[in-house]
Amino acid sequence: MTTEEPSTPDTERHDTSWSANLEHPEHAESRERVVQDARSAIERTAPGRHVNLVTHEAHGHPSSYLYPVLEDEFHSLDWEFVDRCGCGGFVTRVYV
Questions:
Q1: Exposure winner among 7, 31, 32, 33, fewest CB in 10 A?
Q2: Is residue 70 part of a domain?
Q3: Which residues, including other chains, have CB under 8 Å from residue 50's CB and lie 6 or more apart?
Q4: Is residue 66 part of a domain?
Q5: Sequence-distant (≥ 6) Cβ neighbours of residue 77 within 8 angstroms
Q6: 12 lies in some domain
Q7: 28 or 7: which carries more pLDDT confidence?
Q8: E-strand spans in 1-96?
Q9: Does residue 78 lie within any of the structural domains?
């Protein structure tokens, strides 16, 4: 059992490059939540910047569930797999 508090949605616009932490307990429980929050993070990133989407290890590599959404909904953007983070999650960088 985790003692972490649920995440508070980040709703601010980001005018610099940043990282969206999608590794909270609610993200581990729901792939849909990961995709929803990734979508929101991209939409709140200023043009010319990037957002690192740090996804929970529980869902495996994001190519199996997140990349198809990026292709369908954000086809004009570029993204790349960066690496696995030390906690086991996956980092995908999306250039807005």
A1: 32
A2: yes
A3: 17, 93, 94, 95, 96
A4: yes
A5: 42, 70, 94, 95, 96
A6: no
A7: 28
A8: 18-22, 50-55, 78-84, 90-95
A9: yes
Q: Range of 46's domain?
A: 18-95
Nearest to 63 by CA among 47, 77, 82: 82
Nearest to 59 by CA among 92, 93, 18: 92
* pLDDT at res. 86: 86
pTM higher than the cut 0.70: yes
Burial environment of residue 38 by CB neighbours within 10 A (0 to 12, 13 to 18, 19 or more): buried
- SS3 state at 37: helix
Number of domains, the chain? 1
User: How far is C-alpha 78 from the geometric centre of its chain's CA atoms?
Assistant: 14
Task: Say how many C-beta atoms besides its own lie within 10 A of residue 27's C-beta.
Answer: 25
